[in-house]
What does this fold into?
Amino acid sequence: MLLHLTALLALTAQPPAAAPSPQAPDVPAALGQRIAAARAQTIAASTLVIVPDEASYLAAIALWHTPSPDHNGARTLFPILIDDGTLPCHEDLARFARAFKPAYTVRFTAKGDAPAGGPPPPPP
It folds into this structure.
């Protein structure tokens, strides 16, 4: 009983929590604005890119940062999946392709250190 009274006194003796200052930034709103600005500068292409290895995956991701001249410099993003040649992987690729319903499916392989070619641009 004494322990309960001591805990109760300790809780009531604490000062109330300080209210946020009126100048404190609204973090969720600021984050939402940054996300909206980033989405306005990107275009999701209806192209599925399938690569055989990690080097090709990284080379394909590097193409994300290429501004598209057709869309006022916006970046074009597209899904990139790695095909390791196993049956479960092929099933997963097929499942993703059925759900995503891409206009194009491209197999991409990096040649050396630089990306070779790349996926086609999104349809107009």
Summary: The longest strand covers residues 47-51. The chain has four helices and five strands.
